[in-house]
Amino acid sequence: MSGVRPEPDLDWSYDYGAVEKDDVGVVRLVGTATNSGEVALPAAELVAHLLDDQGEVLSQRVAEFEHLARGEEAPFDLDFRLPLDRFRRVDGAVLSPRFPG
Length: 101
Prior knowledge:
Layout: E1 10-21, E2 24-35, E3 41-51, E4 57-68, E5 73-83, H1 84-87, E6 92-98
Antiparallel strand pairs: 1-2, 2-5, 3-4, 3-6
């Protein structure tokens, strides 16, 4: 008998905030990741990229999660500290899941 191996899946939602402080800009992503797959996740990562309007990556952060059961939610909070010249070029964020191991 052969079967199909269930694929891991991770959904997320987040709020985005940005503020200038002296000579630094801070972008903050605060949200929740949910194991929406058919299997428990021993480990998962949510990779966040800040992009400019040309799609160039300005910065990257990773939220790491361990032992997420099916349907389980976990919070994440990612801060990006950038020099003002890069901060002012931020046009958005792109997040993508990764399943190590």
